[in-house]
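QA checklist item 7 of 12: single-chain prediction sanity check.
[x] sequence parsed
[x] length recorded as 218
[x] structure emitted
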Amino acid sequence: MTATNTNLFVRPATEADAGPLIGVLAEAFHDGAVADWLIPDPTDRRTVYYRYFTDAFHHGLTHGQVYTTGDQTAVAIWYPRLERTSTDTRERLESLEAVAGVYAPRFVLLEEMFDAFHPDDPHHYLAYLAVDPTRQNRGIGAALLADHHRRLDDLGLPAYLEATTMRNRRLYLRHGYTAGPTIVLPTGGPIIWRMWRGAPSSGGRTPFPRTLPRRRPL
């Protein structure tokens, strides 16, 4: 367990945290340009998001690193990406169809766009950082970031993420990230800001890596 200040503790999440943290994820991501693009109907969105983030939380526990606070008001899901990875596209499509129903094509497109522009350099990938909307602007998300950043600096590894709002982009810039080329989602979709926090180096931090778009195997 890591103390980040006298009142806030960051710890690994477990299956016992599933209920509260899935709710935090679904509520924190419910509003915004990406949410509107994925699922225009807000009522449908709440239902689908709960299923989607149930899948995301359990996938993070199995394949990544999930952290929360002592009061379960925030969650971060990280994935070590130390070598190039591939996704079973057929299995993922089936999963998204089960989770998102008629909205699955947009979710598939979003994930394919993210994957196509993902850096190949070894790093940790911050897939999700969410704070209970009633507890935002209190430094909780920053504490989760700082906790993992210390771990990455000890390992000499960079971090990568996609910011979906200007507010989030500014947050990550304050925490040592630099912005790379953006992703523009098709069919009238919003802009996504690709962010990189380089590994410590003699010149400061390693720069945003050159990324060539790639296609998933068919």
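[x] summary fact logged: The chain has one domain: 2-205.
[ ] second reviewer sign-off
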